[in-house]
Amino acid sequence: MNIVRTGFYTAIATAARLLAGLVAIKLVAWFAGPEGVGKLGQFMSLMSLLAVLAGGGISAAIVKYVAEYRDDPQRLSRLLSAALWYAFCASCLMGGVALLFSRQLALWLLGDAHYAGLIRVLAVAQLGIALLNYILAVINGFMDVRRLAFIQVTGSVVGIVMMVWLSRWLHLYGALLALVVSQVLWLAVGLPAWWRSSYFRRSMLRLHYDREMTLRLATFSVMTISSAVLPPLVNIAVRDHLALQFGWEQVGYWQAVSKVSDAYLLFLTTAINIYYLPKLASTHGRAALLHELRHAYRYILPAVVVLAATVYVLRGWVTRLLFTPDFVSANVLYGPQLVGDVIKIASFMLSYLMLAKAMTRLFVISECVFAASYFALVYVFTAHFGLVGAMYAFAVNYLLYLAFNVLVARRYLAAL
């Protein structure tokens, strides 16, 4: 399946996920205003963090190795049994930790112990979320884009219904609860769809410790966890810093613009995840890799430039549509954020080479360094430029990350 066809199916699935996310933001903006949107961002960061840690951070590893082993049934069976065992143990551990510290997490992130029950629900849900991520990763590894799109579209519809129902009943608390419950309900769609696939085997649901495969997963897990855990942690720290400096209302403006970026970039990042990770993992040789990378830039970079320019031109209308008139102050933040978005996608396409080729040490070090540099830049730029300095920090940090990835890619390709 080529990138154009992959892009078509992922666009449909992404549109459904995007709609679900926008419904959540709109409802929270209605019920709780800018302050509620800021807290929504904190809770979603916690969800992202726990989802990765609870699943052992091996989704990308499953995609990579399924793509490599799908013609080798014995190794594939060993891999998936070990992956399910790994995810089960990790989800039990992280769920237990979240249960134990639910009150402290509620106070730290949301400033209200009333949300401790919500954290407990999220903790218990980790087993279901880990299983869902495992299923989606296996389907992605087989590059079964149609089935993946079906699960995501149907699951998003379920999430929208749940979001509208619970938020009307419980307002902000209900909206946050719906984010958790809808993720688990995706299993009601994902499991039957996976069972009906031609590549499904009952052995794929067997838990078994395999030392060799577990070590491979653990090595890859370090990379995935560093890339998936550090951004939510840094964003939590950034929100806390902005809240101390400017108040939660200003954090809501920053969060609103960041969410708009996440929303339209979701189309591109999903296509990159679904197509390029398994493709780069199964591609060898300098000429073939160069072809794939050039192919990516030819299609994806012009798309992000057009999308970013469109959002900038329509920023006033977008803000009114997605939020409320109270968010008009966020319009001045779009410019540097959208420039940063273009640089971000350009850097991501190269960074996937490190993931696909398991450059573990280099990848982890780079994630730590650039996470720290982003927070440092936010601290310095907001002191000089105010709230918009957080957007300047975002753009400058990804410019540095792009330069780093260009050097890594050139060195790797030259060595082949």
TrEMBL record:
Keywords in alphabetical order: Cell membrane, Membrane, Transmembrane, Transmembrane helix
Protein localization: Cell membrane
Transmembrane feature ranges: 7-31, 43-67, 79-101, 113-136, 148-166, 172-195, 215-233, 253-276, 296-314, 334-355, 362-381, 387-408
Membrane-topology descriptor: Multi-pass membrane protein
GO biological process: enterobacterial common antigen biosynthetic process
InterPro entries in the cross-refs: Poly_Biosynth_Transport, Polysacc_synth, WzxE
Top-rank lineage group of the source organism: Bacteria
Record keyword Magnesium present: no
GO CC annotation, single: plasma membrane
PANTHER family: LIPID III FLIPPASE (PTHR30250:SF30), PST FAMILY PREDICTED COLANIC ACID TRANSPORTER (PTHR30250)
Protein name: O-antigen translocase
